[in-house]
Amino acid sequence: MVDLHPIKRETFDLGTMTNTDPKGFLRPVDRFDLAPWGLYMARGANHPRFGYLESWLLPEWNLRANIFHFRPGYESSQRLYIDVAAISHEGQRWYTRDLYVDLVSHSDGRALDVLDLDELAAATSAGLIDSAEAQVALETTVQAVAGSARHGEDPQAWLEAQGVKLTWASNVALMPAEE
């Protein structure tokens, strides 16, 4: 059964150094960096499986690239978790509207996993997303998968070939998990 849900929205407020997550929780942000291609965010996470989150919002590519720093016992071959998303900004605030499709790259060089196409189809059918946004989601997915395939199954290398230099923290401190 498909998990039919409204579009997940987030706000990234550079002025208050906060991220309002899809559930409406206001999260303090450790760092925002602006680059010509997008916005970098780093913050702690009290999730049971991961304790830190880094994200790059890339509006021109309709992508949000994430690294989840997993807790001991939850290690994974996952390198990047990429949300296909509509991204906009106005002044000090950036906004994302998750377009349902997710891509996962792996540190072992496997092909990208494409997730939640069924959610995109169900949301389109239910009128939660219009056909134009569904088309953007599908075209973005095809571009990212094809581009990554041309660069050794590495979406970061594909983006770098287009002038996008994603940088990540070399060390992070995991936030304690919420009980």
UniProtKB/TrEMBL annotation:
Domain DUF402, chain residue ranges per copy: 29-152
Organism: Corynebacterium lowii
Pfam families referenced in this protein's UniProt entry, alphabetically: DUF402
Record-given protein name: DUF402 domain-containing protein
Taxonomic classification: Bacteria, Bacillati, Actinomycetota, Actinomycetes, Mycobacteriales
Top-rank taxon: Bacteria
Segments passing through the bilayer: none
Signal peptide (UniProt feature, chain positions): none
